[in-house]
Amino acid sequence: MAVFGYRVTDREGRVTEGVVEAPGEMSARDRLREMGYLPIRVWPASAPPGKIAGPGARSLSARGARRDLLPFLQGLTTLLRAGIPLDRSLEMLGDLFRAQAMGSVANSLLRDVRAGQSLADAMRKVPGSPFSRFTVQMVSAGQATGRLEDALEQAYQFLERSRDFRSTLLGSLLYPAILLVASILSIVLLVVYVVPRFAVVFSSSGVLLPLPTRILLAVSAFFREYGLVFLVAFVLAYLFFSAALRRPEARRAWDRAKLGWPLVGSVLTAIETSRVMRSFSSLLSGGVPILPAFVIAREVSGNLAIRDGMEAARSRVQSGAKVARALAETTPFPEMALQMIAVGEETGRLEAMLESVADTYEGTARRRLRNFLTVLEPAVILGMGLLVGFIVFAMFLAIFRMNEVPF
Fold first, then answer.
1. CA–CA distance, 40 with 162 (Å, rounded to integer)
2. Which of 207, 323, 361, 378 minimizes the number of CB atoms within 10 Å of its CB?
């Protein structure tokens, strides 16, 4: 079996690079197509295309390195499974990614590994490292247990699934966000620019305007007079709120409150449950001891209330408590998730049950988000329709009154 480098596009049109093991170039292309990719170019990994960039050709870009992290981990796993030594694998990946920031990362890892350091220690030392603490700990445990390839593959699968889940959530929110912004801008345009033009005509007619029209003109005049003040006040309030959330106490209270919001709170709870439990499962499956796994899994969550709960649970587990009981006493995770974890502990299948919890609540998050958007989108459309309808109704009432047409 030979190792081939590839450049492909995925189903979403994104270009990515990596390596694949196959008997020949055509087999490599066929395998990439089976994986859902459209091959752009495939070449022997020992001779990647392109001119070698000089040492000063580009500087290390942390953002670019993070973008290429998944192909890098996938490539390193493939090369190691093919029996290629670690240093040679890093050298090949350095050549393969020479045109990207990840090439500098691979070369940095190669230097440290050849100097006698472990891969995990080398990852920690990379300037602006794209490797999270989760990835480094997985690699460290994999090296300690002699299962580096498995640890890298688990880290890759976790990060890929997390990225895809995040992309799905953001994609689901994109249309409602655009709809909401467009609605607000349309209303502002009507009230601030269109209505005042009619106001000039109405005031010159000397007719007593209907009540809805007077209300609309008063609102329009108010926003024209104080709109800038409101905008400045809104920006200042946002900056003040953002600054307040930098204080741990305020951020903790805010994060705890979010989990209790109607509709949104259940979605956030399901998302956090899925993220933390999948991380926890991957760490334990990769050989990380349970107490360090608690510390690292808590960092996956962006919610301080959950982080605090995980830390408190770790302390209780350290004192001899069961994982499920400790989590039940300290965290806001759903009761069903805690019951599943308890069953996993009793049957000796904690890692598998944590993965099942993650899968269950990822599906729950998707379903609840879909239900929330099912309510939100019609509500935005209805709200905009009512406001625009009121504006049009008020304008026509005034026009009819001016022409003395009974309504």
1. 26
2. 378
Q: Which domains does the chain have, with CATH numbers?
A: 2-131 (no CATH), 162-407 (1.20.81.30)
Question: Does residue 77 contact residue 153 with C-beta atoms inside 8 Å?
Answer: yes
Residue 397: partners with Cβ closer than 8 Å, 6 or more residues away = 209, 210, 212, 213, 407
Question: Which value, in Å, is the radius of gyration of the alpha carbons in the chain?
Answer: 29
pLDDT digit string (tens) for 151-171? 899 889 888 888 888 888 888
Q: Three-class SS of residue 18? A: strand
Residue 220's nearest CA partner among 61, 212, 131 is 212
CB 21 within 8 A of CB 8: no
Contact 299, 276 (CB under 8 A): no
Under DSSP, the state recorded for 191 is I
Please report which helix (H) or strand (E) contains residue 215, including its range. helix 211-244
Q: Are 6 and 85 in contact (CB under 8 A)?
A: no
Q: What does the block give as tokens for 49?
A: 């295309």
Does the CA dihedral 325-329-333-334 come out positive or negative?
Answer: positive
The secondary structure of 238-258 as a DSSP string is HHHHHHHTTSHHHHHHHHHHH
What pairs with residue 8 in β-bridges? Answer: 16, 39
Residues in CB range of 392: below 8 A, 6 or more apart:
none
Closest CA to 74 of 161, 5, 140, 153: 153
pTM: predicted TM-score of the whole model, two decimal places: 0.70
Q: For the beta carbon of residue 376, count every other beta carbon within 10 angstroms.
A: 18
Say how many C-beta atoms besides its own lie within 10 A of residue 170's C-beta: 10
Nearest to 5 by CA among 19, 26, 25, 15: 19
Cβ contact 151:80 at 8 Å: no
Split the chain (407 residues) into runs of 10 and give each run's mean pLDDT.
74 70 79 78 60 36 66 89 89 83 86 90 83 87 86 88 85 87 89 87 81 91 89 94 90 92 89 92 88 88 91 93 94 94 94 94 90 87 91 88 64
Cβ-Cβ contacts under 8 Å for 383 (sequence gap 6 or more):
183
Give me the sign of the Cα torsion angle 265, 271, 275, 281.
Answer: positive
**Residue whose pair of structure tokens reads 């008063």 in the numeric block:** 218
